Amino acid sequence: MPWYLYIALKQLFPSGKGFSFFALISIIGVSLGVAVLLGVQTIMNGFGHQIRESLLKVNGDIRVESNRVINSWERIEAYLESVEGVEQASPYAHGIVMLQHRNLPVFPAVMGVDLTEDEPFIPIKEFLTQGEFEDLDDDSVFIGSSLATRIAARMGDTLELFTPLMLQRLKQDEVLLPREVRVAGIFQSGRNDVDSNTIMTSLRLMQDLYGLDEGIHGLSVNVAEGVDVSQITDKINEHFSYPIRAVSWMESNRDYMFVLQFEKTMMTIIMFFIILVASFSIASSLMTSVIRKTREIGLLVAMGARPRDIAYSYCLQGLMIGVSGVILGIILQWLVIHYRNEIVWQFAEWTNSSSALLRFYQFNDIPARYESSDVHIVAWGTIVICLLAGLGPALRALKLKPAEALRSE
Amino acid sequence: MSRKAAKKAPAKRQTKKPATLLKVSGVKKSFEDSGKIIEVLKGADFEMPVSTSMSIMGASGSGKSTFLNTLCGLETIDEGTIKWRVEKEKPLQSISDFSTSELARLRGKFFGFIFQSYHLIPELNAIENVIISAKLVGRVSAETKNRAKTLMETVGLADRLKHPVQKLSGGERQRVAIARALINDPLVILADEPTGNLDEHTANEIMELLIKVCNESRGSLLLVTHNPDFAKLTEQEVHLQDGRFI
Ligand SMILES: Nc1ncnc2c1ncn2[C@@H]1O[C@H](COP(=O)(O)OP(=O)(O)OP(=O)(O)O)[C@@H](O)[C@H]1O
Ligand SMILES: [Mg+2]
C-alpha cells in the first residue's frame, strides 16, 4: 500500500479509535443524500411505471382510427393481425351517452368491445371487482367503480341510456324512449379518470346506440412483449392511407409522459443539489483538516514525502468518503425501499392516520422500480463530487511551504 | 588536466582528516515579512565531518532553525551552496542538482528529524509513527517492522508499541520521535531543541538517550540547544551569531 493511501485511511480511521468523527459525519451525510436521491427516484420510477402500465392497459398499445365510421373493417383487422409482432387487433366503438339512474343524470364515455374475442383488449377481467366478464351481453353494461358510487348504482340495477342519435330522432317528433340496460359488473382500473367516467358495453350494443350498423370507430392493437411499438405503428401507417391512421400509446399520451419525465428530472436536479451541499461540507472539513494538519504535512515533506503524494492523500480521502457514502447510501435506500410498506403503515399507525391513508390513497402497496441508469448516475456523480471536494484541500497542501508548515503551531 | 591534478594533490594529503558529510558555504537567507526584509543568514559557512556530533548554539531568533531547514533543503536559499555526502563512498553533491522529488526522497533517507514539539501524527499509534518514516522513503517489509520494534525497545518503550501517541507523556513522545529518526538508519540526525518542552529531569534522560543511540548508530548528531551542558556532550560546538557561525 503506498503511504499516501495509508495516511488517508488512517486519517479517516485512526488507530485505536476506529472512526474519526469527521469521517463518520461526512460518510453519513453522503449516504443520506444518496439514499434519499435513489429512494425518491425508485418510487418515482415505480409510480411512473404503474401509470404507464395503466395507460397501456386502458388504451392498448396502438389504436387504428379514422375520422369517420369504418365499415369494412374485417379487411383491416386481417391485415393488422398479419403484421409480425401483433398479437391481437380488436374492433371497438366509443362515444358519450347520457346515463340516468333514479333521476340522476351523468355523461360517461362508453367503450363498446367485441365480445367474440376470447380476450378483450382491455384486461377487463382483471379490473372487475364485481360480476363476471361472461355476464356481459347486449343488454348489460360494466360500470366504473367511482361512477357507480356517484350514482348509487349496484349490481343488477337498471340504468337508462340516451344517445345523440335519439336527439336527432327527437327533432323528427318521434317518441323518445331510453335504452334500458342492466349493471352486470363494476370495474376498477386504478385510473381515476377512467373509473369515474366510463362504462363498458358490447360492441353490438354500442353499434345500436350510435346507429353504426356493422361499422366501428377503430381497432385496438396489442403487440407482443418486447416489440418496438413505434416501429409497428410506422409500419401500419405505411400500409394504410388517409383517413386511417395508427397512433401509439406513447403518442396519444405524449403530454402525460412528458410531465412524468419532467417531474423526475426536476427531482433529480434538486436532489443533486443536496449532495452538492453535502460535498461542500466535506470540502470544508477536509480543508479544516489541511489547516489543522499543516505541521504534519510539513513533517511528512521533511521525512521524504513528495508534496504531490500528500495531495493524492487528500484526494483519496474525498474519494473514500464518496465511495463508502455511496455504498452505505445504496444499502440504506435498499432497506427503506424493501420495507417501504411496513414503514408507511407503522408511521400511519403512530400518527393514527392509517384509515385516512386507505381512504384517500387507495393503495396497499407503494410502487418501486429500480433503473440501473439512475443508480449509475447517482453513484458516479456523487463519487466525482466527493473527489472534487478533496481536490481543493489537496491543492492547498500542494502549495504549502514545508519549512513554514513545520513552524506553524 | 593539469588543474585537476593540482586539485587532487592537496586532497591526498588530507586523508587522515575524516571526510566531510555536510558542507555549507556562503549561504544567505532573508525573509520578507510585511514589506520588511529580515536577513537571517548572512553568508554562513559550516562543515560537518562524518561520524561525529556537533551542537549549534545561539540566541533565540539567531536563525538556528532556519539554518537546519536550509541545510536539509526544506527552505530555499538566496545565495551559497549546500552539499551532502549521501553515501560514504560517494562525493559531496550540491543539493541544487537534485529535482524536487529526488531531494525529498534523499532527505528522507539521509536525515532523521527530532523536533522540540515532537511532531508525531496523532492518528497513528506509537510504532506506526516510527514505521511511517520508512514507508515514506519506500521501505516496507517485515524487516522494517522488526527494526521498529527493536528501536522502540532501545528507547525504552517496548510496552507502549500500540499506545495512542496522544496518551504518551512528553518524554515518551520524544522517545518515539527518536526511534522514528533512526528507522531509516540516516547519516545525519537533526535535533532542534529536542528537550525544549521537557522538565529538567526528563530532559537529561532524553539527552543521554539521544547521545547514546547516535553513538551506537552510524549517524552523526547535529544538535541545536540552548543548554551549554548539553552542548558539551557533543564533540564540537559552533555558535550562530549575526547570521554567521563563529
Ligand atoms: N517564514 C518566515 N517569515 C518571516 N520571518 C521568518 C520566517 N522564518 C523565520 N523567520 C525569522 O527568522 C529569524 C530566525 O528564526 P529561527 O526560527 O531560525 O530562529 P531560532 O534561532 O531557531 O530561534 P529559537 O532559538 O527561538 O528557536 C526570526 O527572527 C524569525 O522571525
Ligand atoms: Mg528554533
Report on the architecture of this protein.
The complex is a heterodimer of chains A (409) and B (246). By secondary structure, chain A is an alpha+beta fold. Helices cover 58% and strands 17% of the residues of chain A. In chain A, strands 1, 2, 3, 4, 5, 6, 7, 8, 9, 10, 11 and 12 form a 12-stranded mixed beta sheet that branches. In chain A, α1 crosses α13 and α2 runs antiparallel to α11. Chain A starts with a helix and ends with a helix. Chain B is an alpha/beta fold and 246 residues long. Chain B has one domain: 3-Layer(aba) Sandwich (Rossmann fold), CATH 3.40.50. Chain B has 8 helices and 10 strands. Chain B has a 6-stranded mixed beta sheet, with helices on both faces. The longest helix of chain B is centred in the last third of the chain and has 17 residues. The N terminus of chain B is likely disordered. Classes of the chains: A alpha+beta (409), B alpha/beta (246). At the A-B interface, α1, α12 and α17 of A face α2, α3 and α4 of B. Bound molecules: adenosine-5'-triphosphate (ATP) and magnesium ion. The site of adenosine-5'-triphosphate has 12 residues of chain B, from β1, β2 and α2.
